[in-house]
């Protein structure tokens, strides 16, 4: 499994910290940008690349970053097979349900609302949580993907 990262200026610092963390944990990381901090860059330019990669291989994962994570998730969710969930505070139940019920393959983090420690805890939980595979959840995801 590859993990794609993408961020604009608002999430750049957190993306860089997460990248170091994931590489240390021996994950295969693909950084889709931004490659350096630019105050007035636009998140769609970076999120699009990560979302396209997940659209082609929905078993991979992406973690995307922005100020709130909302716009980034909206952008990502425009692509077939992408299911982005927004996290702007550490909530074990919400993070778990995003995987168990929705099989979210993109995690959109609101960098203005999360401390680095909370973001790393959310990512660890999200990556280790499996999709439940229950029939009702499969049925609902199939309807979304149509």
Task: Explain briefly what this protein structure is.
This protein is an alpha/beta fold and 146 residues long. The protein has helices spanning 12-24, 43-56, 70-76, 92-100, 116-128, 135-145, and strands at 2-7, 28-31, 61-66, 84-87, 106-110.
List the helices and strands and how they pair.
Elements: E1 2-7, H1 12-24, E2 28-31, H2 43-56, E3 61-66, H3 70-76, E4 84-87, H4 92-100, E5 106-110, H5 116-128, H6 135-145
Parallel strand pairs: 1-2, 1-3, 3-5, 4-5
Helix pairs in contact: 2-3
Describe this structure in words.
This protein has one domain: Sugar-phosphate isomerase, RpiB/LacA/LacB (Ribose 5-phosphate Isomerase B, Chain: A). It contains six helices and five strands, in the order βαβαβαβαβαα. It has helices at residues 12-24, 43-56, 70-76, 92-100, 116-128, 135-145, and strands spanning 2-7, 28-31, 61-66, 84-87, 106-110. A five-stranded parallel β-sheet has the order 2-1-3-5-4, with helices on both faces. The longest helix has 14 residues, at 43-56. The protein is globular, with a radius of gyration of 14 Å. The chain starts with a strand and ends with a helix. The mean pLDDT is 95.
